[in-house]
Backbone:
């Protein structure tokens, strides 16, 4: 599962500035962007440097800025996270859309993220470790070492709205990270397996007793009743091949849960062409979220022989730091099945 745009995280390579984007560079030289849809003068001068090394900056000033930004976060209208412009989409996408909201589990995650971000000693420790080890380990692995940066895509209640309740059978969660999102899906299935490339994250998953499969051979353990691929397509080097593997590894009546951050700005943490770009890009057209949802369904899922049953818009949330309580990107989450059923 991909890392969300935090001020120190190299994501969304090549992206232009977005509303509320953090105009700083990580040590990788890539300017991250997020969908933090408030405009705050307090963000403009945030830089990704150790606190005492900031030019003219102090810890007190940083904490003051954080207080102001977090106040805006608490006041923002979170309903906008869940509402696409359906009038701009084809009738079939309008009919299959499921509108969700910021439920109690989501609010709990946000409250916990804010509390964690206000632990000054903890955040200073994280900053020091990232400064020392950030050149040698990926952001995902660093998060695994530190037990930080947990993600939130959907709650169990929201997942039930999408899949229609407990389904039983076998689930495979690709790129499971620390298993936080996996745990929201787990109660709906009889057996859960996961994949994850990061060694520290694999240790976390092992402690949670998940069956861990290798990323190059998971398909051999199919077929699967449900395969979840949450925010992985824009983080892997060959997303078209991955979609084909998912399709071929499902049971005839199986479903895939596919989430992708839009607008599409791929970034490959390891592998790829050596410049953090994938070997193949998904043919997603358009500029806005709504245009790209339509293109993703038409130009990516359709040619991959998937048919959309339901879809929704959700915020892809990540724990914050000393700059703000949490970060988010706009996710499109699809429940799809095979468009063509081949009888055995």
Residues:
């Amino acid at each position: 599962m991909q890392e969300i745009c935090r001020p120190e995280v190299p994501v969304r390579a090549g992206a232009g500035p977005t509303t509320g984007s953090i105009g700083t560079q990580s040590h990788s030289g890539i300017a991250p962007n997020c969908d933090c849809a408030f405009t705050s003068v307090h963000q403009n001068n945030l830089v990704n440097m150790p606190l005492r090394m900031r030019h003219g900056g102090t810890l007190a000033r940083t904490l003051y800025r954080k207080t102001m930004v977090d106040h805006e976060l608490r006041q923002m209208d979170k309903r906008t996270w869940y509402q696409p412009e359906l009038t701009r989409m084809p009738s079939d996408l309008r009919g299959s859309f499921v509108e969700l909201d910021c439920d109690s589990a989501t609010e709990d995650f946000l409250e916990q993220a804010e509390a964690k971000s206000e632990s000054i000693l903890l955040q200073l420790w994280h900053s020091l470790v990232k400064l020392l080890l950030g050149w040698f380990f990926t952001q995902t692995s660093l998060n695994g070492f530190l037990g930080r940066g947990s993600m939130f895509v959907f709650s169990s209640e929201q997942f039930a709205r999408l899949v229609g309740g407990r389904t039983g059978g076998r689930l495979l969660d690709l790129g499971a990270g620390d298993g936080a999102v996996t745990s929201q899906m787990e109660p709906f299935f009889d057996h859960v397996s996961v994949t994850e490339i990061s060694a520290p994250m694999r240790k976390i998953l092992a402690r949670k007793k998940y069956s861990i499969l290798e990323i190059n051979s998971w398909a051999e353990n199919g077929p699967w009743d449900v395969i979840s691929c949450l925010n992985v397509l824009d983080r892997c080097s060959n997303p078209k091949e991955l979609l084909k593997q998912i399709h071929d590894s499902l049971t005839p009546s199986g479903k895939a849960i596919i989430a992708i951050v839009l607008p599409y700005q791929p970034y490959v943490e390891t592998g790829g062409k050596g410049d953090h770009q994938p070997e193949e890009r998904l043919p997603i057209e358009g500029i806005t979220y709504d245009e790209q949802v339509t293109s993703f369904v038409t130009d990516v899922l359709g040619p991959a022989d998937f048919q959309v049953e339901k879809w929704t818009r959700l915020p892809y949330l990540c724990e914050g730091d000393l700059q703000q309580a949490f970060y988010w990107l706009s996710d499109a989450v699809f429940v799809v099945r095979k468009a063509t059923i081949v009888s055995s």
